[in-house]
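dude i think i finally got it to work??
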Amino acid sequence: MTTVFNKYEGAGNDFVIIDNLRGDFIAETGTIASLCNRRFGIGADGLILIEKEPLVPYRMRYFNSDGKEGSMCGNGGRCAAHFAVRHGIALPVHQFIASDGMHNADVGSDTVTISMSDVSGITHETGNYFLNTGSPHLVIFTADAESANVAGRGREIRYSPRFAPHGTNVNFVKTEENNTIFVRTYERGVEDETLSCGTGVTASAIASVFAGHFVTPPVAIRTRGGNLLVDFRMEGNMVTGVKLNGPATFVFEGEINI
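look at this
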C-alpha cells in the first residue's frame, strides 16, 4: 500500500503526519517504528495520525518512535493543527481531541498556539518537581543544563523503580533572566534527548513559577531546537488556562510503500 505522508517539525521536534480520516492506515507497532527509523525509514521523533472524530474536525493519535502509542505530545499537537488547516480539515481556530482530552488550536502564519490540560498534584522532592502536563515529567533545576548528560542521566531516571512501570520524561532546566528558561528533555518512547518537547517545556515553565524562580507567567523557553512560550494561571495548587505557543513547520510531503 502506498501511503502519503507529511514531515513536520516544531522547534526541532519532528513528526511524520498521516491523514487517516478514512481509516486506511493500520497502526501496527513495527510499521510505525520502521517509518520513524532515521536510517531505514523516513525518520522522526514520532508519528501522528489524523483520524475521524464526531464532535470536532479530527482526533490526533500520537505514537512514539518506538512504535507504541504515546500520551499527549505538545509540539505534535501544534504540528497536527497546522497540518489540519493546511489540508482543509479544520479552520485556523478549531478544536481537536487527543489522548488527554479536548484542545483548542489557533494557527497563525508563523506560530501555532494550543491549549494544554489543567495541572494539579505537583509534587516536590529535593529540589525537583514532578507533574503531568498530558505526559508525566520530572523537572530538575540545574545551572549545568548545557553540559548535562541528558541521555545517560535521563535514561537512568526514566527506568528507575520510583517511576515504574511506565517511566517518566526528564527535563534539565536552567533559569535565566527575563522569565526565560533553557530546557533539555529526555523523552520516553524516543529513549533519547529530543531537540525540544512541548509537554516538557510546559512542565518546566509551570515548575519554574511554582518553585518561585519567577513571579508570574508567561515563561519564555529556549531549547536546542527553537524558542517556545508557555502561559498559564496559578490558582493555588491548580494550574489552568495553559497555552503552548511556538513554530510548526511543514518540511516536505512524500509517498512510501508499506
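The mean pLDDT is 97.
im so relieved honestly
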